[in-house]
Amino acid sequence: MPKPTLTLRAGVRLLAAVASGLLTAYAFPEHDIWWLAPVGVGLLSAAALGVRWRLALLLGLGHGLGFFLPTLSWTGVYVGNLPWVALCTLEALYIAAMCAVLSVVQRPLLASRLRPLAYAAVPLAWVLQEWARGSTPFGGFPWARLAFSQADGPLAPFARYGGAPGVTFAVACLGVLLHLAARELTHRVGRPRRAQAAAYRPLAVALAVLAVAPLGLALATTPPTDGRKVSVLFVQGNVPKPGLDFNAERRKVLDNHVQGTLGAVATGHPAPSLVVWPENSSDIDPFENPDAAADIRLALETVKAPILVGAVLNGPAPYISNASLFYRPGEPDPQRYIKQHPVPFAEYIPYRSFFRNFSDKVDLVTRDFTKGDKPGGFEVPVAGERPYWIIPTICFEVAYDGLMRDSTLQPGRDASILAVQTNNATFGYTAESEQQFAISRLRAIEHGRSVVHVSTVGVSGFINPDGTYVDKTTLFTAAARYGSPVVRTEVTVSDRLGPLPEYAAGLAFVALLALGLWLRRRTARVERATDGPTAPAQPRRDRVVV
Q1: Is 279 a catalytic residue?
Q2: Fewer CB atoms < 10 Å away: N or C end of the chain?
Q3: Is 252 a catalytic residue?
């Protein structure tokens, strides 16, 4: 009889873990129920607390699949189910590993007076798990982090202090507090308490205060939006049709953006200081196609302002380049920024011959993109005023903490705004565009900068340094919008700290792991000394009461 009971308990925990993943998915765009993120973390914490590492591994996998499969469903919209499921399974394995390691840390702590530290390990582990899957393999895929669900939540201002890792930590802290609150409530309503080691109460109080500190700081913070206003025009030219062959009609995407710019000028609006076109707005290489170069020059001469153009360049051989080209009136050649983090399996195929064994979709990427080696930034002249810098980020680069931070902090580029140039045509009418826009909103708060977020097909918009936005567009429409983003010079606390929050989380988690292993060994020594070599065997207690 005990064996079926244990199996039933494991099944209930697994269902709770999968449910926790689904709840967390609903925190992200386009559902935007931000408060479900801490609820999901709390439910997973309750499901996995005290179990052995093998079961914890399974529970983490269940949560991960329940979370990533709906959240990243856009990755398979045109390439099929295999790439989508493979990516989601890989991402879910990181959460599975997190839960397994947490089990090793927590079990000995739960049986000691230091039990509150078992709960403190959870938010630290979330930060490290997101860092790991955002860095490995092939540079990682840091999409769908807890922080990126909070653009509309009260924790968003904390990004000024802790960046995306800090917001993830704060979300997980609230999740653990919800778990503890539910645990206390269930024990008070008819559920008897079992004998446990008395917790060290001052430690519990101190950890609870630390857990709510980020929320308190966020609620007390009003991100500044002051600065010098500049006039900027963004153009969302649209594409002939959604899908992987969005640029099948030669020059059509470029023509759309040229015509969108000319149409905006024809309205009689005062000339902007800058025009921003999205990624792939020039669907053919303007250096090798004189007709494309002539069209861009026509737009440049008509608007009489610099234009930031997204283009795919042929080279350096045998590669191609995803570039931001900065054209200034009167200058013969544009300046350029090359995307530093091409997306694996989308812009290049690692180990192509090996992965072709699993799917011939790898051959949709006919040529690999090369990798840029330095941050971008272009100086924008303003008549009668000081110039400012426009700092480009291309597509998925917006999800990588270090790329945007390094570009923002380049010496001499203090007065700046950020541009996120993206092409969402290959994801159709899915949540990808809204998810990316939410990331840009958090980045605006994190770096204290305005963001011009512009897509070939939408969504696009002007994002203020406090994460609010104006002139947001819809999908697969042509649009051109004039805005007045503010130029700012502030260096936020988050920018000054850089990756230190993740390093601190790593050191703290390693310390808890070492403490847990020491407690395990000490308990084993005490049991051996108490039982003696001839003592009858005692039944092993495999379950910790939670």
Answers
A1: yes
A2: N
A3: no
